[in-house]
Predict the structure.
Amino acid sequence: MIRKRSVCPRFSKSLRGINTTKMAVTRTSSSLLLSFLLIWLMSCNACSDTLKSKAVSVDGRLAANVFERDCGATTDFSSIVNVQSASDKFRGEEGLLFVARGRYDLSVTWTGPRSLVINCRGCSRNNIFREVVALGDIDVRYNLGSAQ
């Protein structure tokens, strides 16, 4: 007679003298810790934003921010312009008007309470990823390329 071995170990014989309740709690705690760590790592933003300049609109209600985003050694810098309420603390996630891959000499000028001009010296068209011409009641014009 051929006796087949079980694929699963027989815990009742191999765990004699070991507190299985303690093992279950340790295993559950380890799973919870690992889950928390993964969620925390996924929520982290590896990018950092450096504010270069800020221009407040003629009526003082809006601010156009020029900043540079650095997401680490494996990606290029981004030159970005966003607009937000002048009274709010700088946040680079909202109101994105202009995004270009690389480091560029950007400047912004308000020509009216809701009219903005963005100048980008040396910008190459193939490196521009976002170029918004209107955001809500804000009109945006661009001067791209050589110095204006």
Observations:
- The first helix runs from residue 11 to 14.
